[in-house]
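Re: the 463-residue chain
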Amino acid sequence: MKYRTLAGAASIIGFISAFTYASLSGGGSDIEATKDVKAVQPDHYDNTSNELAILDDNPGQGQSSAPNTPNGKPFNVLAFYNASFDQAHIDFDHEANSWFARMATENGFTYTATKNWNKLNSGELAKYQVVMFLDDYPHVDAQKSAFQKYMDGGGGFIGFHVSAYNDNSSDWPWYHNDFLGTGTFRANSWGPTQEILKIEDTKHPATTGLPSRIQSSVSEWYSWNRDLRNDPNIDILASMDQSTFPIGTDPSQTWRNGYYPIVWANHKYKMVYNNFGHNSMNYASNTRLSSTFSSEQQNRLLLQEIRWAAVHSESVRPPASTPSPRPSSPADHPATSAGTIHGYGSNCVDVSRASTADGAAVQLYHCNGTRAQNWEASNAGTLTALGKCMDVAGAGTVNGTRIQLHECNGTGSQVWRPGTNGSLVNAQSGKCLDATDWGKSDGTLLQIWSCTQASNQSWYMTS
């Protein structure tokens, strides 16, 4: 088919508490990868029923303190859609608005759906923790700018199917190339089919509790001109399992082999894109033949994506071990407090090769108790190791500026203040200490980046 175009002494501690979410429906064991699951569902679904979504300015109220919401508090989701092109996309919009509104009521968040894309402005977006694009993306410069600013500032995003469609290589490069990683549309399978998806990243909070293979709902599927495997920022959560080929019912548009990402995240943002959202239709009668929300396992994935995007922390799962006791407060240590700074992947902040030279790299490394991992946090906001200060290289203020060890000089590039969710905010740049590209391995360099409240920006100190 052709589509349209930390910071004062021990107060740097901000260890995120673990929260346990209520169990969601969905199988807990691998499904049998047999070809009979590929058939389009024969049942007819009524697509004329009233949408349950709350539209425009009337947010639906979820349960005020449901136990399976992040932090036990409701959060707000704003979904944009057009419902103006292709009956299958329009039908998905109607079904999605109904399903998400119901899930919001059952799971303690609010869901607001709107066709008014002018609501993509800073004032409106500030009310919501997650934005969804159901069937399109913004095409007006002011809307694009507001959305990019929202994402750079730590907002959450969930996208579906045609919201990534693009056949113009010059159309909004940030969104298609950097954010989604897809570039331009290459091809689609046809007709819509149900497939076996392989969970690629079993450690991502969105895939928690899912088996290694899950059954999708019926959809048409897209492929892209960019290979997402080559993008270091892209984390592929699910792809087509090799057992599921061939994919499609039209011989001329059937995929018989290859690698096809279906669900992925971007390490730089609080986002997940889902390469599905196209119901099977009887176009002559405009009758729905399948449901995007027929797979319990896929539904679980969607709900966990939303929760993760709303909080973006590893607190979705209880930690494997109990964290070290919280150090005493700065008031107990008027001068300084010394200890080890723990970060992403339970690794420690470390001076590379224990070097004392100005410019020595500051990195993550497995905790080993050496002097290169012993930091002093002063009430003035400095963090020192090996007699020198943690410093933003060149007094930089842009995302990606590396962190180094340097002779203490009293400048703002060496001052760190406690932020939310355990973050360390550099006084001069206003940006957070960040593990580059969500790396957890020994040698992952530290940098400054726009504060996102993400788990790769969470730090705590133990003495």
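The chain has two domains: 39-316, 330-462.
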